[in-house]
Each structure stands twice: as structure tokens, then as C-alpha cells.
Amino acid sequence: MKNVEDYLxxxxxxxxxxxxxxxxxxxxxxxxxxxxxxxxxxFRNFGISAKEMKIPSGSKVFDWIVPAEWDIREAWVKNSKGxxxxxxxxxxxxxxxxxxxxxxxxxxxxxxxxxxxxxxRPEWIPYRTSYYIDNWGFCCKHSLLSSEDFSGPFEVYIDSxxxxxxxxxxxxxxxxxxxxxxxxxxxxxxxxxxxxxxxLSGFVTALALFNFIRSQDTxxxxxxxxxxxxxxxxxxxKSIRKRDLQKILGGFVVTTTAGQGxxxxxxTFLGDHPLDKISKEVCQRIDPKSFTYDFIPLGSDxxxxxxxxxxxxxxxxxxxxxxxxxxxxxxxxxxxxxxxPNFRNNLAAHIEVVNWLExxxxxxxxxxxxxxxxxxxxKYGLFPNIGxxxxxxxxxxxxxxNNELKIEIFAWLMHxxxxxxxxxxxxxxxxxxxxxxxxxxxxxxxxxxxSYL
Length: 453
Hints:
Aminopeptidase; 13 helices; 3 domains; single chain
């Protein structure tokens, strides 16, 4: 795998900031043309081909029913003077996402039953949804309710459709095949409109990560899945054959990757999976202020992937994780809130974790002479021809001389290569850095001493 910086040098050529600005204002939901169009624009930007998958509205997916296909064209509220005081054209967040259509003149008390505000943040518009219960409504600044403009009666107009007869829920899949069928899942959701950190940043990060992976010859196979949150991941899981599910070693739920905070890694449900250990180490190097969140079954699609029927361990590498920042699910989560330097660092962390996954092989010896024990390293040019030097010094690993380092690493490799122990496990047992073991293992492979996928 190439160095992370080699890819990030092309960062400007990927038009990432332009893509953020293009996708941010588009209306989206868990179904409808907005979701499909947004995802397809993202794929085209990176030149990624994807398979479009769908399931009809009304279908049963485990305990869930796929909702109708929703689209909206116009929505507004006029006060008693005919002035438009809430308008979908001004913000996608003004409408209760998945709102039913409605047209009528109603009182202030009746309108208040259908308004959603943030009293503690009176100038922000909240993001609210009603996917599975038929309802209509608006979201607005709380300060509007105490203004002179909020005078009834009000004319309310919502022009939306819910197609349950011929509608579908869509998701998208793309695969990069590696030397092994062992698979890493890269899942992201993209069903929220006009929210920059949640979930626009995660969608773009997932595409940029997959774009890096598909330019490489990889040991593992990688599967990119773009879904509407919850119902989409469930539909994807239902579509997987059991034998394909067994190939998935783990994965990423890519979300909230460009916020103002440091990198935070939400652990897998196992807590000690290789993804947990690798992510913690990699992120600490990239961002010394990084930290970990313990797993809880609340949040995003890791809830579905790690549920009892599937048990796919997934991590999330975030900057300002959902629920953890004040701007979450509000109009304040905009393009001014996000940090592009943080986005870049987060992408670098995802890529470096993939690099480590590629290096985390489980080697086995190639038996050239039928005997066990150590290799005779001298005849492979890996050990000095003059023996007798004392290598067993009681000093820290970092202070050893270069030759002593190599001998110690080689010795640990020969001790631990049993066809069962991964490089990560070797590092934990020996105290030798992961990269040093991986580099020396490559020398063993070049000399024909070991093999691995």
C-alpha cells in the first residue's frame, strides 16, 4: 500500500471542498430522488462504479417495514398578513423530514402542535423526522414564536408525495477485490439534508477512502455500502448470503468526520478486536489528543451490524461524533462549522488503519528442509557470518544498535511464526513496534522463508 501522504498530495485534485458545497444544499431523506441523486453525484466525482440495489416500499425487513418513497416540492407557512414566515426554499431543515402533504388555514394553537424548535438555541433550526408515522410539520427558529410575524391564522402548504405502490428504498454497493475473499466493510449513510458534519462528511470520507483502496493491489477485499441510515443497513444485511456474511472480518461505519473536536474512535462491540487496537494506535499518532469511546448500542448503523444475528465488529473514526456536539441535528451543523483540516486528518487516519490491516498478516513458515526450529539466517544474508557477539543486552528496544534490532526482531519472528499468530499479536507479545515486525517479515518473504495472503 502507498504512503498516506502520496494520496493526500492529490487532495486538491479530488475536488472535495467543491463536492461539499454541491451536496450540502440538496434535499435528502431515507427514500426518494434526493438520496439517489446525491449518492450518484458523489460516485461520479470519484469515478467509482456502484451497483444500485433496491427493495419495494411495504416490504418486510426483519421487524421493520420499508416506508414509501418520499419526495417534496414546496412547503411554506404564511401569517395573517400573507407574509411567508417559514419556507422550504430557505432551508431544507424547515420541513419535518418525510412530512405528509397538507393545505389549510389553521389557528396558532393548531400550528404550534406541528412546529419543532430548539428553545435553548433560539436562532437554530432543528432537524426532525417522521419516517414511520404519518404526520406533517415544520421546524423553525424558536425566536420566531415570540416575534410580531407569528400572528395567526396561518395558511399552511406542503406539497409532498409518498409513493407506497411503486416506490422503493435504494442503496449502493461497490467492491474492490483483493487476493483474499476476507472482507472489510466500509459503510456510510447519506439520508440527512443540509447537515455538514452529520452526515455529509462521512459520505465524502467513505468515498475518498474507497477511492484510495481501489487504486491499490490489496490483500483483503473491501466492500463499500452507501445506505439510508438504519432501514438501509438492515435491508443490506437481509440481502447478504450467509456464506458472504462469514467473509466479513469487520469494518467501518463512517460518520461525522469533520467536526471541530479531536479524533474520537468508537470501539467495536468486542472492544479488543484488531480494528480497536490498530485504530487507537494510528489515531494517537495522527492526533495526540485523540481518544476512544466505549461501545454502546446507540448511535448509527453499528447497532445493526453488531446485533446478535450478525456480530460484525465495526469502528467509527470521528471528529465530533453524533450526539457529542451542540450543533448536531441543527442548522448550525453547516459548512462554516466543519473543519477541512480535521477532515483531511480523519481521512488520513482511515487510510492508515487500512494500511495496517493490510500488513496484519498471519504468516506461516515455508519448510525447505523438513526440520523445525529456527532458520539458518546466515545463508540467506540475514545474520552476520562471524558469530559470538552477545546480543542479549538489558536495554530498551529503542536504544539498541541497528544490527541488534534486526537480530532481536528476526528472533521473535522465528519464535512466533506458527501459522496462527498475526503481526499485531506478535507486536503485543514481543513489545516490538508493529511496523518494524512487518518490515522484517517482508524480508523473510522475499527470501522465501514464509508465506501469507
